[in-house]
Write a structure and sequence with these properties.
Layout: E1 6-7, E2 10-16, H1 17-20, E3 21-29, E4 32-43, E5 46-55, E6 65-69, E7 72-81, H2 84-126, H3 135-179, E8 187-195, E9 199-210, E10 217-227, E11 236-246, E12 252-260, H4 299-307, H5 323-328, E13 350-359, E14 366-384, E15 388-398, E16 408-414, E17 417-424, E18 432-439, E19 443-447, E20 451-457, E21 463-476, E22 482-490, E23 499-505, H6 515-519, E24 537-540, E25 543-547, E26 565-572, E27 577-589
Parallel strand pairs: 2-5, 3-12, 10-16, 14-22
Antiparallel strand pairs: 1-2, 3-4, 4-9, 5-8, 6-9, 7-8, 10-11, 11-14, 12-13, 14-15, 15-18, 16-17, 19-21, 20-21, 21-27, 22-26, 23-27, 24-25, 25-26
Helix pairs in contact: 2-3
Length: 597
């Protein structure tokens, strides 16, 4: 809507943001949106006052930027509250919706009452007994029942039609209130334009809005991972999506959308460091007691006065120390209350949604696909049967794309079936990360009861030897083979030189004593050979064993085996079975009470 009023030589142009502009672009951040509106304005030569109404109350004044194209100069920009008369006119929309809702409720009650009458009429007809009623009377009853039923049916249809019409009116008023909301679109921008000649100019209005999570705009990444464990070339497909919600009371129509992943710093000062002072505490010299000047008649009173400062009962703390404490040391520097801040990942990315989008201000969640990526991944099955007799599967995935993954929720499908939900970590392009794919029910694990045998040895210095045997049975119940199955268990570690632990099966090399244990011979495990602790032992044609963490980048290879954790790497054919054996011996002097068995 464009109107003009001649006041002296100035022209006043009235515009409504929702009606007289188009949204050129939206930069959507988590909890914040940046909009650019384009207005086409016909000005006359000289001074023009352009009033833009219907802007959101969440508009940040400092973020406003006005640019123009054409033979004109922008002289002044003023942001203010909209006219009270216009706000009052817009408030009628809210009143109208409330009135229609009341009308709808009344119609619903009338429909329910009429339906109950129709049902009661049928119930009455079922109570009539043909044996006690004559044929003529029965015929009259049927005719009256048919007439009443017809009237009630017509009344129900009419009321339902009125109810449907009211619903349409409510929807229309709600749609109108989205673009003209009395409480949320009450800001106005007044622009003074000095035109060199008459004609059309373009005014770009860019503003930022701070938005609440419930009532605003937001986007977050979501993922859908489809893993094919039988494929060898790029077995994992990742759907990268954006979940967008907006209830800004502005209809985002035919506009381009850019998704941002980081919000710029606002009013943030860089940190600075202050000097760190050290000082020596100066104790106040004690004053010798002059017993000669003490009145002899009051000894008990003087003792009470001496002891009183050291006893404080039910006395609230004071803000400042006493004069005596100030004399001992200087007061500490007063600190300001620090508010904790959390940075979730620190990865920056920008996504431009292709084409144009139409997002109504409905508060609903809208899915938009950012990319579909085929990624290389290695699958690893793992189980810790002493803790949980289930087999889990994880994927070591390489992000071979140019997209940055932002931390968000992910749904996982393995071999076409839904497996689990999880959280995608923040990942940069070309990085590798681990992601859990849930439980594989096709691999059965049995952790058998541990066998224990005890024996004594020695003549003069007797010792007790405990031999433990732990068996783990694994069955691949699937019709496909499984490789890279990692089974983890542990042997005890000794914190006392009088306790000796010896690993028998698998025959792994025990770690040597560290410098600390060389001084204190209570080694973690007894060294039994000169072989490398990083060696892998072949248990069978399909099973190897090693210390946990062998070859892993984030594990200190010099500390292998010192935690007592043993791993088997198993390959199982379809319907294959295998039994793993962990055997170790614990020896100690007779009579010691050993904790931890």
């Amino acid at each position: 809507m464009i109107t003009s009023t001649a006041i002296s030589t100035a022209q006043t142009i009235v515009l409504v943001a929702a009606d007289d502009s188009v949204i050129e672009n939206i930069n959507l951040y988590p909890g914040r949106a940046e909009l650019t509106r384009i207005f086409k304005v016909v000005v006359h030569e000289g001074e023009n006052h352009v009033d833009i109404h219907g802007l959101p109350v969440s508009l940040v004044d400092d973020s406003l930027r006005i640019e123009g194209h054409g033979w004109a100069t922008i002289c002044d920009v003023v942001v203010s509250q909209d006219d009270p008369d216009r706000i009052s006119a817009l408030s009628s929309t809210t009143t109208q919706i409330a009135s229609l809702k009341r009308q709808r409720k009344e119609l619903f009650v009338r429909v329910s009452a009429t339906q109950q009458s129709r049902s009661a009429l049928g119930t009455y007809l079922n109570t009539i007994k043909a044996d006690n009623t004559g044929l003529a009377s029965l015929s009259a009853i049927f005719e009256e029942q048919e007439r009443l039923a017809g009237e009630l049916d017509v009344r129900i249809l009419d009321l339902e039609k009125e109810l449907s019409d009211v619903d349409k009116l409510i929807d229309a008023e709600r749609e109108n209130s989205q673009s003209n909301n009395a409480k949320q679109l009450t800001r106005k921008i007044s622009i003074t334009v000095l035109a060199q000649k008459a004609g059309e100019v373009t005014v770009d209005v860019k503003y930022r809005k701070y938005l609440l999570v419930v009532q605003g705009a937001n986007w977050k990444p979501i993922y859908e991972i489809q893993a094919n464990t039988q494929s060898t070339e790029k077995p994992l497909t990742l759907l990268y999506k954006a979940l967008i919600t907006q209830s800004t009371y502005e209809f985002w129509k035919n506009t381009t959308l850019t998704l941002e992943t980081i919000t710029p710093s606002l009013s943030m000062s860089p940190p600075h460091i202050t000097p760190w002072h050290l000082w020596v505490r100066h104790r106040r010299p004690s004053t010798p007691l002059n017993v000669y000047n003490m009145p002899m008649s009051q000894p008990h009173m003087h003792m009470a006065a001496m002891q009183q400062p050291t006893i404080i009962i039910n006395q609230p703390p004071t803000m400042f120390p006493s004069s005596r404490s100030r004399s001992r040391s200087p007061p500490p520097r007063m600190q300001h209350l620090q508010v904790a801040a959390t940075d979730n990942g620190g990865i920056m990315a920008t996504f431009r949604v292709p084409g144009v989008v139409n997002l109504p201000s409905d508060g609903q969640q809208h899915n938009m696909t950012i990319a579909q990526l085929d990624l290389q991944a290695d699958f690893i099955w793992y189980t810790i049967p002493s803790q949980h007799a289930r087999t889990f599967i994880k994927a070591k995935i390489k992000n071979g794309s140019d997209y940055r993954f932002i931390s968000g929720k992910a749904k996982t499908y393995v071999d076409g079936s839904f497996a689990s939900t999880g959280t995608m970590p923040a990942v940069s392009p070309q990085d590798t990360f681990d992601f859990s794919l849930g439980i594989d029910p096709g691999i059965k694990v049995t952790y058998h009861p541990r066998e224990k045998k005890a024996a004594q040895s020695g003549i003069y210095s007797k010792s007790t030897n405990h031999t433990f045997i732990q068996r783990i049975s694994i069955h691949n119940a699937k019709s496909t083979p499984v490789k890279n199955l990692k089974v983890t268990d542990r042997v005890p570690i000794s914190d006392d030189q009088r306790i000796e632990v010896r690993l028998i099966s698998p025959a792994l090399t025990l770690p040597a004593a560290t410098s600390a244990t060389e001084k204190n011979p209570s080694s973690i495990l007894k060294l039994k050979s000169k072989q490398s602790v990083s060696d892998t032992v072949k248990v069978s044609s399909s099973v190897t064993a090693n210390w946990n963490g062998l070859g892993e980048q984030d594990v200190d290879q010099k500390a292998l085996g010192k935690d007592g954790v043993v791993c088997w790497l198993v390959s199982l054919a379809a319907q294959g079975r295998v039994t793993l054996v962990l055997q170790y011996e614990v020896s100690h002097a007779e009579g010691l009470d050993i904790n931890g068995f």
